[in-house]
Sequence to fold (326 residues):
Amino acid sequence: MDTDFLTEKRQRLDEFRPFPAELLENLERWFLIELTYTSNALEGNTLTRLETAVVVEKGLTVGGKSLVEHLEATNHAGALRKVVEIARSQVHSLTEHTLLDLHAMILHGIDDANARRYRSIPVRISGSRVVLPNPAKVPGLMSEFFGELTAMAGSHPVELAAEAHYRLVTIHPFIDGNGRTARLLMNLILLQHGYPPALIRKRDRVPYLKSLEKAQLGGSREDYLKIIARSVDRSFGIYFQALGGDEPKVEDSSRLLRIGDLAKKTGETHATLRHWMKEGLLESAETTAAGYQLFDPEMAVRVQRIRSLQSERRTLAEIRQELEGD
Fold:
């Protein structure tokens, strides 16, 4: 992972420290909502960004949303506040107690029986080919996990944070809440070392999960590490934007393409694009409240790749396998 540019940005950010109290409060409030919204959205929570803010900041409920989705929002926000508190304490050692406490906060009121406990049953990641460790091995693997984090203490903070996240989700020690807990742990490490949190957007869900799966199946971790580096870089941008006097802004969906836009851009029919989606060759980045699927412009490049592979007389199954390996 190229971390030099992130080190330089951290050094630039350090020049502004200590931050004005009001600015710091505004940034922390903004990241509290944005990280809660995005982390939960990555796991399938359907609360919008605005709805998440209403639930977390106002304590109100949103019609049509489940109790679990409300709890996921308030729980994550509470756990993130704990992460900020720990980071400020300047205690850099990460203990099993800290991790289990964060996990308990994530599952509070949702699954108290399994909160703060390692799983005792086999689990599978829906839609993934990754085989997770046998539950009997989890305690030993977690002991090794904390030892490895200690051994890696001299690594670049972004590499350490990314590795901690990767190893935790690969062990998958809990029945539920693994992804949220791993992202909290990653951001705790980043904050402890003076870096902003990694902001993995909802629209990055598919490449993020695919990059993890690729590495877990023995492939390169490069795609995964790039996503984490870009996510930290994105947060640096938010900090510098605020320091320049501008309000933090979320990236909207204006650059995403509807299926009609993608069809125009590539010369393919709607039917063809929908068929390729059904076959797992194309993925949408987001689905709007009205049910429209939106595509990252990079999918236009994917369409060209599919056509190129078809010209080699590859079957759709072969093309899908080839794309998964890209």
